[in-house]
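To close the section, here is one more complete example, presented without commentary so you can practise reading it yourself. The ligand is copper (II) ion.
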Amino acid sequence: MTEDIPANPARRALRLHREMDRVWSDLPGWRGSLASVNHSTIGLRFMATSFMFFAIGGVLAMLIRAQLATRNGVFLDTALYNQIFTMHGSIMMFLFAIPMLEGLGMWLLPKILGARDMAFPRLGALGYWCYLFGGTIILASLLLGVAPDAGWFMYVPLSGKTHTPGVSADIWLLGVTFVEISAVAAAVEIIVTILRMRRAGMGLTRMPLMGWYMLGTAAMMLVGFPPLILGSILLELERAAGWPFFDVLRGGDPLLWQHLFWLFGHPEVYIIFLPAAGVLSTIIPVFARVPILGYGAIVAAVLGLVFLSFGLWVHHMFTVGIPHMALAFFSAASALVAVPTSVQVFAWIGTMWAGRVELRLPMLHVIGFFLTFVIGGLTGVMLAMVPFNWQAHDTAFVTAHLHYVLVGGFVFPMMAGITYWMPMISGRFRIRALGEAAFWLILLGFHGTFFLMHLTGLLGMPRRIDRYPGNPEWEWLNLVSSIGGMVMAAGFAMFVMDIGMQWLFGRRSHRNPWRAETLDWAMALPAPPYNFASLPGPRHPDSGAILPLARGEGLLPGAPRQRREVLVRDAGTGRPDHVAVVPGNTVLPIWTAAALGSFFLLMLAGLYWLTPLAISAILWAGWQWGGFMGSPRDAAPIPVAPGLSLPEHWQVRQSLAYSGTVTLLVADGTLYASLLFGVGFLTVIAPNWPAPESGQGLGALLAAGGALLSIAAATLAARLAETQRDRPTGATAALTGVLAGGLALALLGVLAWQVDDPRRHARDALRGVLLGHAVFHGVVALMLGLRCLSDARQGRISGLRQGAAPVWQLFQTFWLATAALSLGIVALQEIG
Ligand SMILES: [Cu+2]
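Output:
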């Protein structure tokens, strides 16, 4: 697919390493560690932090098991028990599993795809700080005794103001939303990295399977998280400002929350499972010493799972009263998921069958996966059957199923992955025996805990209860489960010890210790911060190229311009397209996260009047981020290989930033679509509609029309500013666009003045949100416009250099489309 690119002349590998290391290393000291943006550092931090949260979630689980060991458990009172199971679920889902897979993706993807960094290093760092701050807020609430206690699914009306006064639910909603920012950021980053930064000439059909799995995962995150973010915003608005979305008396419906939650919550299972399956597909062929069986079938299965996972959320709601046809459809669809899942399981078994499996430690964890996950899959098919579901609903059976799927489908594969890639992280081999003992303890402890819970559930024990004085027949089952839990906890402690011992005392590992073929092993151990001194291309497709790449024979060798340069390819053809300079060490991400965090904390404290301060800090930080889009000079093309020179990223329209914006707008569009779903759902389903007569008159109509016209004018001006950027008319157009955008915002403000009180009815509340959506996008569009204007004034844009203009133009168009749709809907409501 690409013409072969000639090799660069070989140089001394050590010299090249020193040159790269100077440019790519983190700064020394603790201050330097705040400024780090390198994907390896950030990825490892994500994984280490998530493991810490896993330990905390595990301790909470032990408390639950201690309470349930006897039927009159006096260990915890009910209020604390409720906090603990809510926090156990929330921590494991939001603070362990998702960040763990983000960390793995961030750390591994550039290595396995043959790149030096992720597409947006600063965004990765921002995501990490958001995760850490959000997680800390959630955790602190437990220490302060105000932890969320309404279950990790936060069902309304239980989580509403009436039943859960105080801040506990707000902490969950704001904290989790804060953490989700990092998930959406990671999804954007992963997609753009996979599509545009793979080794030159690596076609999609020859991409390591991990790439496909992460692509599927990121796509699901991009579409799965926005509904939950929207749901959290709506619920927080209802709690904080009294805007009714879930209050039946005022035109809301609690079921809306369930839909939004499970629109996220179900794909979540696959979001967690797919990267884990990617790990399995990566390491099984290595230890079986044969290529993976059925590459194409696996890719098809991944795509099938991504597609199916979005049609299944209703199977969490079989008992809420939905039409029979819908029940039948979602039941069948849920059972259908077993097909792509088993395609993969058969491919893995077939691969092991065809080869000769070396039973090293990572492979033991793979066996643990098989023993566990298959049972979880079977009980999953059972639960997909509506009559059985009605029987087992909300019993310990479901808890058992859930843990079989999540521990089998995520924790075991992750332990396999960690032990597999540890030599690359630590540069050392493991010490024998400790890891094996840990594995057996975890496996036996796990099945000891959860296998019997199927039976406990079938005997009728509900989830989430803290005492069962009237049911002595559950007692011995629970006691065995509790003992199993303690054994498993001891196993995890040993696992951590094993990792620590390897780090400290392991003997040095030689290169590529597992004799794997993927590019992640084409580097020295431990992996250097820049990954590859020269980048692999069609000539150097796998781990066999380790020496030529270190000697600079690959593409874009070294760092002669003293900056972090990466190669960006055309997404389709695989031809190298341009050289992007990615940002180096900077404290901007942590500042931005702190600004965002202060906004969340002020909201939590109820200090709404202080939030404008935080908002200005966020705007200031956002302005600084844009500084990277302009450059003061036109540069000569950069030599990549003999006879191949490429432009810098300022000079191309299809830059990483542009691809990233397109991807982000998919998430943004999903959020908006979820909002429209909410409007439609409440209008059609909720009782207490139609809404009372609205008092909006001619003034509102004029303001709406005027705002729309101004946005259209600004969009036109943005287009002109982009195409004419090298001429004075370009700067004039930018100025016009900014002014028109400002006018539109002012008119939206006038409109806000005229809207009926949003607390009156769900329709008015939804109008408030639609308006807020338009204002928010207006502010971002205006910032981008100002950036273009200022860059044009300072000569940071030219005929060759694009600056922020393409992104502005894109965003402005999105603003126009959504604002027009929103105003159209309101107009329709008024007529109809
Ligand atoms: Cu589900």
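Once you have examined the tokens, check your reading against these statements. The radius of gyration is 27 Å. The longest helix spans residues 78-113.
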